[in-house]
UniProtKB/TrEMBL annotation:
Keyword Nucleotide-binding in record: yes
InterPro entries referenced in this protein's UniProt entry, alphabetically: P-loop_NTPase (IPR027417)
GO molecular function: GTP binding
Keywords: GTP-binding, Nucleotide-binding
Source species, domain of life: Eukaryota
Protein name, as recorded: IFT22
PANTHER family, sorted: DRAB5-RELATED
Lineage: Eukaryota, Metazoa, Spiralia, Lophotrochozoa, Bryozoa
A Pfam entry, by short name: Roc
Protein's UniProt keywords contain GTP-binding: yes
């Protein structure tokens, strides 16, 4: 079974833990008082495939819910190591989060082998996605955007997350197939 390591990164109080708990079906999903993540939380679960590209079954996911506190910056390299995908999460209704988010993008995309098609920007907002186009940082123009309003449309959030996980699995499968073809050509 395929195993993916997916990072959830972004500024403090963006909603990374709430999102991570929700998509992984963790019991502690209930809202409540804000408690900052200390370092990282790793949530392990399976996501069923939707028979894309002739495959069925499920994918093992390690979801790394990373603290938004820069005091853990010395741990970022360890977090990024062997990542299969990255979810950048932020709340555009808090203006300081946009510039902070760009530093997360700059670091994690340059220090990992994750391609743009293996990244997603999850936007936590009550507004519609088309209303947010002006506030989305330019660095995120080439990656998938997912609007996250779990309270009002949780099913859509889960569906978009599953599609994102499948797209990572497909990208990695295609890369592995290409690597195998290159090895055969060299011999």
């Amino acid at each position: 079974m395929l195993k993916l390591k997916v990072l959830v990164v972004g500024p403090c109080e963006a909603g990374k833990t709430h999102f991570s708990n929700f998509v992984s079906d963790q019991a502690e999903n209930a809202g409540g008082e804000y408690r900052p993540t200390q370092g990282v939380r790793i949530l392990e679960f399976e996501t069923p495939l939707t028979k894309s590209k002739g495959r069925s079954g499920s994918i093992d996911v390690e979801l790394w819910d990373c603290s938004g506190d820069h005091k853990y910056e010395s741990c970022w390299a360890a977090m990024a190591k062997d990542a299969s995908g990255i979810i950048f999460l932020y709340n555009p209704d808090q203006p300081s989060q946009s510039s902070d988010l760009e530093s997360w993008h700059s670091y994690f995309t340059s220090s990992s082998k994750v391609k743009p098609n293996q990244c997603a920007l999850v936007i936590r907002s009550q507004r519609q996605l088309y209303e947010l186009e002006d506030v989305i940082p330019a660095a995120f123009s080439k990656i998938q955007h997912i609007k996250s309003n779990i309270e009002e449309d949780g099913d859509t959030v889960k569906m978009e997350f599953t599609k994102f996980i499948e797209s990572i699995a497909n990208a990695l499968s295609e890369k592995n197939e290409q690597d195998e073809l290159n090895i055969v050509k060299e011999s």
